[in-house]
Amino acid sequence: MSQNLGNLEETVLLIVAVMPDEAYGYTVSEQYYKTMGSRISISAVHTVLKRLEKKGFIKSKMGGSTAERGGRRKRIFSVTKLGLKTLEEIQENRMKLWNMMPKLNFSH
Amino acid sequence: MQNAPKSDSPPKWANRFLEWYCAHHLIDEIQGDLLEAFYYRYQELGMRRAKWWFIWDVIRFFRPSSFGKQQFNTNSIAMFKNYLKVSFRNFVRNKVYSSINLSGLIVGIAACLLISLHVIEEFSYDNFHPYSKDTYRVVMDMYAKGELRTKSAPIYAAVGPNLAKDFPEIVAAMRILPFGGGVYSVRQEDGSQIRFNEEKAVLADPNFFELFGFKLIDGDPKNVLSEPRQIVISESTAKRYFGNKNPIGENIVWRGRDDTKVTGVFEDFPENSHMQFDMITSLKSWEGYDEWVNNWGWYDFYTFIRLSENVDINVFRTKISQYLDEKKAESFAENNIRQELVLQPIEDIHLYSKGLSWEMGENGGAENVYFLIAIAALILIIAWVNFINLSTARAVKRAKEVGVRKVVGAGKSQLIIQFLAEAFLYNFVAVLIATGIVALLVPVINGAIEISLERTLLYSNLVILGLSLLIVAGTAISGLYPAFVLTSFKPITVIRGNLYKRKGKLGFRQVLVVFQFTASITLILGTFIVVKQLQFMRSQDLGFSPEQNLVVRGATSGSGGDDLDQRSQRFRNELLELPAVLNHAITNNIPGRENFGISGYTSIIFPDDLQNLYNVHTDDNFFVNFDIEFLAGRNFSKEILTDTAAVILNESAIRLLGFDSPDAALAEKLNPNTRREFKIIGVVNDYHQASLRDNLDPIAFFYHDGRGRFNLIKLSTNDYPDVVRQIESVWDKVYPDNPFDFFFMDEFFDRQYKSDEKFNSIFIGFAGLAIFVACIGLFGLVSFTAEQSKKEISIRKVLGASVSKVVFLLAKDYARLIFIAILIAFPLAYYLMKQWLQGYAYQTSISAGVFVMGGLLISVIAFLTVSFKSFNVANSNPVNSLRDE
After folding, report:
1. Could you read off the pLDDT of B716-756 as tens digits, one per residue?
2. Lowest CB count within 10 Å: A104, B604, B606, B671, which one?
3. Of A30, A44, A65, the CB nearest to B32
4. Beta bridge partner(s), residue B304
5. Beta strand B135-144 with B147-152: parallel, antiparallel or unpaired?
């Protein structure tokens, strides 16, 4: 499963997972900037979210609107079971690798 | 485009654009996110950056996924992609032809743009005044014996105020008197003086700044000029005299006598005005101001009026033209003359003042502007013709593509769209590159010739609109014909066999080549004549010798007339002691400077008709300094006291007065039996008072031995810097209160040809461009023909044809076309240049030599272009092009 997930997709999926009920285009792009330190455009975020939804890792529903949005509603994303499982799988695989890391390198 | 949205909202146009392209079911999330992002970024990063982010995001979202699938036919997108791809591949595959096509277009459009910048500037003169459409200058047509003699820009002092009184249609009238020149000085705190000789200084009525759109930086437009002894100066002039001090309320002394107070400072006049003043003094400062209201004899006043908005201008023109008939009835009847007032829109003054005498400064000419427009259009058309020619010539290669597309099922309209898209692409790219080139070139051109192009105009709405139209027109003109030609091929003939035939009748392509070369030859001939005319004017005998004459502007600052007269005498005496000074003359006018002094005179032959002669007040040394030849009689003499009532006339003057020969005029009188009677003591040869553009002036010379407007100093040496230094030290001794202001007579006279020179360099430059574009087109065409007939040539060579025979074979077709072009161009050029030369009083001949040279030149250029490629092909090994069959 996990080989279907690109680097950016994985990060965005993680961001959606840590922001329950608050993940939509703008907040995801802001969160990305805050944690990763570089910017990606909102249009790129939209593309990634759409792709993730198509793959079934996340699902979406329309949320409320605010004045800042000029009265436009949000499309709020949340992680599906499949998405969560995939993330866990990736993490597990990584931890395996981390545990195999020779300790010597860290002693200095 | 400058957008001014509310301070806290994103750019409106970007938002609208987003709403326009975004699919309905996606607008919530996309626009919402962008607006929210804008909202927070605005607080965090500020307005500017938030806006740029917003625009960038809107552009990033502009992609098919945002459009919503149901509205968009992806097949046509794919086809467009294919068209672009094929265009690009074609470009790359035929680099030579494509770059010829493109570079021709670029050069053509760049030339067009450059000329447009200049033309826009020329047409913008004086359009910035409020009500400029209702503002007119009143000028005067002067008739004698029912014949139009002179058109005068300035008119009588009394006309302005009286017109305003008599016609309710006139909202305001304003007069300018161009006699503010002379020395202006300002006393410094340490007792020294700052002084300059000012030329661009005038006197004007109080409402100057209300009528015109010139901006006052300091001072109230209503009363800066309302009282005597008030002066308004330009910003740069204020800097010159006062540095950074506030000039308001300061004192400036005019001519060492008149104190004036600075009441205002105006922004330096924009370049696109026919008026260019540094200083404006209130008209009331001029002596005897109160009496002018009824002065109908002195016409030195430029008079402007503003009409109320709903006046029928034609009716008003008729009314005003008869105005002087009543006011000057007596004078008209007595002298058999008539004068008509004429209205000239202020926006027309710069371009349409030809033939008007005594203008404020040199104006532009509408003819030159139209000429340039024509050349620009010509270059562009030649470039488009290149495109048409090369595209249709390449049809053979493209025909296979077309054939395959048709077989696969492309309709004719689709193919036409494809080729139009290709033409559009070329034109679009050419416009972009040309605009970039022009932006880079403008500073270079501004430095090279005395012309000021405004680069910012490139971003003006007018130019952007023009360029868009150009792209559309270019696409249509250069794309339609090839599109129809290319799409009309039948697939079966195209795919099966060769379309190409080298020999043919005079087809469309040939006609176009003839047109291109007709234009090129006409331009070459035109260039020759334009250059020849300037050389001719420069090489003509002027009737006087300007060489080695130094001119020093006369002193104007002194305690009074007597003082200046005495000092003038002293200056002369001390000057003549210098070994390098041969002679010294005093005069109120010099050649190359328009003479404002003109009066009517009678003679024994025309006792009742006034003949207009220009007045020059000078002394005997004037004729010596300039080597002016006496045809009869003698020079003035200091010893003969009656010479103050004597006059010397030139040849044109005696002819005008009715005398048959110089000797017949001698001992006769000017103004016989009147109080202003002068004895004719000498007749001199005509000399050119103005450039050879104008006719010879009839001149009456009167004896004047005192101070003068100009000191004319004849030098015996060519070591100018040293002599000038010596003369300056004499000047400073005699005139410590006047600046030393000098120039050389020959340079001054030559200055009149500046505008001719400018026109020449522009003309030559663009003619060269046109020929270049035509030649690269021809080159492309020839290369193509040569390429196509490779096999034919190879076979001929195998069978024994020589290289020269083959070259001749290829060149023959084009030689015929060039010959036809020459036949058309010769009479055309002759006619056009004859028209152009009408603007000059002294015209060079349009000799056969010019035509021979022009014809030879174009033949050589064309032959080189053709043979370059032909030799290449003719020299190639026949095996290379024959082995693959």
Report:
1. 887 888 888 899 999 989 988 888 888 999 888 988 888 78
2. A104
3. A65
4. B137, B174
5. antiparallel
